[in-house]
Amino acid sequence: MIKTYTVIAAGLVAVLLGGLASMVFFGQRDEGFAQCRQTTVAGGSGSIGGPFELVDHTGRTVRDTDVIDRPTLIYFGYTFCPDVCPLDNARNAQAADILIDQGVDMQLAFISIDPARDTPEVLAEFVSYMHPEMIGLTGSAEQVRAASQAYKTYYAAQESDDPDYYLVDHTTFSYLVLPEHGFVDVFRRELTPEALAEQVGCFIEAA
């Protein structure tokens, strides 16, 4: 059964689909998951993803191999995001529940692009609201930047007179990573939970 998620969103955030946005287009399929893939990344799926070292929501330093031990949907965002991030992650959580109810062992990973405010403690509260199988990841500014660059994401803090209250423009894709294959596809936020679950399930079954 799909869990019901209540997301309280306030205000608007300007989200720039930079970086990967210009690289994703409909067209030629990569080999291996041709029957599942809806998009193609210029340069091939091997150009996205890679090693990272971050800090999880329990305060433990982890590497990508520690985190991605089963199919994982990764989202880059921040907990102070007023609407887009909670809505997107709620959608991902609903899709995950559809798959979990079908017997699929998967998880969600939320990588903060706002490490100044998103401490492990803040992330722990965020992921506890979102989904029991969600991992929150943060780190130093350098660690976060390296992870973002690996996945070709974009983020930039907006100027603000208050150092504690500012918005961050960022990429809003969700990335599917499989332990044996690495990054396999990227999903836009317009997908419904049902459509996302179907596409993710196709990759997992094909793997």
From TrEMBL:
Cu cation binds at C81, C85, H170. Pfam families: SCO1-SenC. Keywords: Copper, Disulfide bond, Metal-binding. GO terms for molecular function: metal ion binding. Disulfide bonds join C81-C85. InterPro entries: SCO1/SenC (IPR003782), Thioredoxin-like_sf (IPR036249). PANTHER family: ELECTRON TRANSPORT PROTIN SCO1/SENC FAMILY MEMBER (PTHR12151), LINALOOL DEHYDRATASE_ISOMERASE DOMAIN-CONTAINING PROTEIN (PTHR12151:SF25). Belongs to the SCO1/2 family. This is Protein SCO1/2. It comes from Roseicitreum antarcticum. The lineage of its organism: Bacteria, Pseudomonadati, Pseudomonadota, Alphaproteobacteria, Rhodobacterales.
